[in-house]
Design brief:
289 residues; 2 domains; 13 strands; alpha+beta; 6-stranded antiparallel beta sheet; Gamma-B Crystallin, domain 1; disordered N terminus; 5 helices; single chain
Length: 289
């Protein structure tokens, strides 16, 4: 009887010790410590600044507090939303993890192998919206490549006309968009009395390409990806097309500040003002903004 009691006690101690060790070694999701089994995003390059740790895939980090995923630990960036603010990663999981430009695991992306530390590439640095575990088969494309053909060079002269007429340079781009991308809902728009008479739209030097079902409506996931495909194509071929800048989904890219990538667009808000329902493209011209 004594031997049986000792055996039971010994087994209980071993089970208790084993269980306790497992708890001590388990990663604690969202505690601001990059532990084994987690994928971690850092506010600064080279794994510096505040860290945000994850134990699973996140399809949308969220845009604002208190609902967004934020950087948790002490350091530069603590409390800031992770979306569009990460610069580096450490993949401490047992498989691949892919970071995406868009929410819903879409757009430009970069895959990090198990154990990898690294900085996000130029297209994704401070431009990150989601990540997915085990996404090793995802492509890592140049976001400006897409599948649309390369357009011919825009040799049309710079000129100012009155909206809704398009300048020759703008008309050329509208034709290339329709022929090469299939997007046919691109308009100069009517003369906008609230704007400067020399604005890009008023002088016929800008197009708005409706991507959603209608102006004033947010696009669905397919339409959003479709809009980015057009925006990236315009970005890639900006020199050939004589593009000045492109706006889509609250982001702006311009030739003059190309090294900065896609920046937050702050001149408008809402569905249309933020350019969530249409892609805006302005041509190179000396007549206005």
């Amino acid at each position: 009887m004594l031997k049986k009691t000792i055996f039971v006690a010994l087994m209980g101690a071993l089970v208790s010790a084993s269980f306790g060790a497992g708890v001590a070694n388990a990663a604690t999701d969202r505690n601001g410590v990059c532990e084994s089994g987690e994928f971690c995003l850092y506010y600064n390059s080279d794994q510096a600044g505040s860290v945000s740790d994850f134990a699973g895939s996140i399809s949308d980090y969220g845009d604002s507090q208190p609902s967004c995923y934020e950087f948790k630990s002490a350091g530069n960036g603590q409390g800031v939303c992770v979306k569009n603010n990460a610069a580096a990663v450490w993949n401490r999981t047992s498989g691949n993890v892919t970071v995406y430009y868009n929410s819903g695991y879409a757009g430009a992306n970069q895959t990090f192998a198990s154990g990898a530390k690294g900085n996000l590439k130029a297209e994704l640095k401070n431009e990150n919206a989601s990540h997915r575990f085990g996404a090793g088969s995802d492509p890592d494309p140049d976001p400006g490549t897409g599948t649309y053909p390369t357009p011919p060079t825009n040799n049309q002269p710079s000129e100012a006309v009155r909206a809704p007429q398009a300048s020759k340079r703008t008309a050329f781009v509208r034709t290339q968009i329709a022929d090469l991308t299939g997007e046919k809902q691109c308009y100069v728009g009517d003369y906008r009395s609230g704007e400067s008479s020399t604005s890009n739209h008023n002088t016929g030097n800008a197009l708005d390409c409706t991507i959603s079902n209608a102006i004033g409506q947010y696009p669905n996931a397919t339409q959003k990806a479709q809009g980015w495909k057009l925006a990236y194509w315009l970005q890639k071929h900006a020199v050939k097309l004589d593009v000045r800048y492109v706006i889509w989904q609250g982001k702006i890219w311009s030739v003059a500040r190309a090294s900065e990538g896609w920046r937050n667009y702050t001149a408008g808000s809402g569905v249309t003002g933020g350019h969530y329902d249409h892609v805006h493209v302005s041509m190179q011209n000396p007549y206005g903004d």
